[in-house]
Amino acid sequence: MGAKDNAPAKQAALGLGACTALVIGNMIGSGIFLLPASLAAFGPISLLGWILTSAGAIVLAIIFGRLAQLVTKPGGPYAYCEVGYGEFAGFIIAWGYWIALWTGNAAVAVALVGYLGFLVPAVDESQTLSLAVALISIWFLTLINIRGVAEAGLVQTITTIGKLVPLVAIGLLGLFWVESQNFAPFNTSGQSSMAAVSAAAALTLWAYLGLESATVPSGDVVDPKKTIPRATIIGVLITAAVYILVTFVAIGVVPSGELATSSAPLALVATTMWGAVGGFLVALGAVVSTFGTLNGFTLLTGQVPYGAAMDRVFPRALGNLSNYGTPANALILSNLLASVLIVMNFSKGLVGAFETIILLAVMSSLLPYALCALAELMILVRRNKSAAQPLGRLKIAILGMLGFVYSIWALYGSGSETVFLGFLLIIAGIPIHVWIKSTQKQPGPAADRMIQAAPDPQNRGNS
């Protein structure tokens, strides 16, 4: 009895502070360092996009916190949708989630090149060199993840500190350099206010992707039913405050026209305020941050398809491990696709390529988000929880509809071209699902046993 009594205390080691730090560290990555340039085309009205995106992220955070309590098997969004809607829906969500990861990896690599170019002008001046740096960065970290370097956790800790210092400095100290005339006109996009805010929100959602992977297994958390939702909400609120404050300062310090053409917008802001030294330090912090984010995304591009393959949702070959015990096949395929995406879009310039790729990543994430929003209600229905209180059902339904409507609205803001391309990528996975099912002789109990044996990709780290 003594050992049993001690086990829960050992597992429940994560309190509110630790969980909140995990949420913040996973969300703040490359987005905020390049997004001010993308949002400058809309003008100060883009701040409303940040506010609405933050509100939507809070709703989604609550939903994922609740789902983490209902579904304990690994797989994240696709596990929730598989339990809630069935096997085919689970595959489509796993497919879309995987697309979001490798497209996200491509976007982070582009952001890394933008700030490295600020430090090394030769990179910024040569498109060929910029493309080479982006590809080398991806494959360098792919090889590190294949080898399973033990120091990866230390790298993530250092880069988390490196990303917060310049952001806090700009957000707080930069308020003294803000000039009111830079906030007029309020909408510079040439679109209606509604269209401008929707488009800005679609871009800003990129900065919140990954909030679902920060939900911690309930067995590791002190009082998980309260701690996980609270930590996620607090983490999103703190992150939102950093994002909005930094964007406010960026718009207030540098005119929108100048900000929109910069491949290193926050370094430009710091240079305007503090001179060349300030710009250099912020650019250095951005390189450190994006490198760490790229490392985290690279990790997930291997672990998520590996977990899906172990569940017999993805091809079995993606579940093979290297001699180092890492999912080498999944890592190589994912980052080969990320490299192709970078090459295809690099002619648009750094900012243009970044915008195109993050919208594709956001679109691929929004379908999982939309379905997960209503998954809790579907899970209760499929488990025949007829005894649930009507008021509780109503609360779940309202929360789910808020998350669903927000996801659809953000999808609308992504633009028709992005939605069309993202739709084609997701539909392209259906023949793979048919092929996988046709080769399975024991899809039922065997698949369940594999699910229990699969590692939890959400517990392996993130950006």
Automatic annotation (TrEMBL):
Top-level taxon: Bacteria
Keyword terms of this UniProt record: Cell membrane, Membrane, Transmembrane, Transmembrane helix
Principal subcellular localisation of the protein: membrane
Pfam families in the record: AA_permease_2 (PF13520)
Bilayer topology annotation: Multi-pass membrane protein
TM spans (from-to): 12-35, 47-67, 88-116, 128-146, 158-178, 190-211, 232-254, 274-300, 321-344, 356-381, 393-412, 418-436
Compartments reported by the entry: Cell membrane
Similarity comment: Belongs to the amino acid-polyamine-organocation (APC) superfamily. Basic amino acid/polyamine antiporter (APA) (TC 2.A.3.2) family.
General function of this protein: Major component of the acid-resistance (AR) system allowing enteric pathogens to survive the acidic environment in the stomach. Exchanges extracellular arginine for its intracellular decarboxylation product agmatine (Agm) thereby expelling intracellular protons. Probably undergoes several conformational states in order to translocate the substrate across the membrane; keeps the substrate accessible to only 1 side of the membrane at a time by opening and closing 3 membrane-internal gates.
Descriptive protein name: Arginine/agmatine antiporter
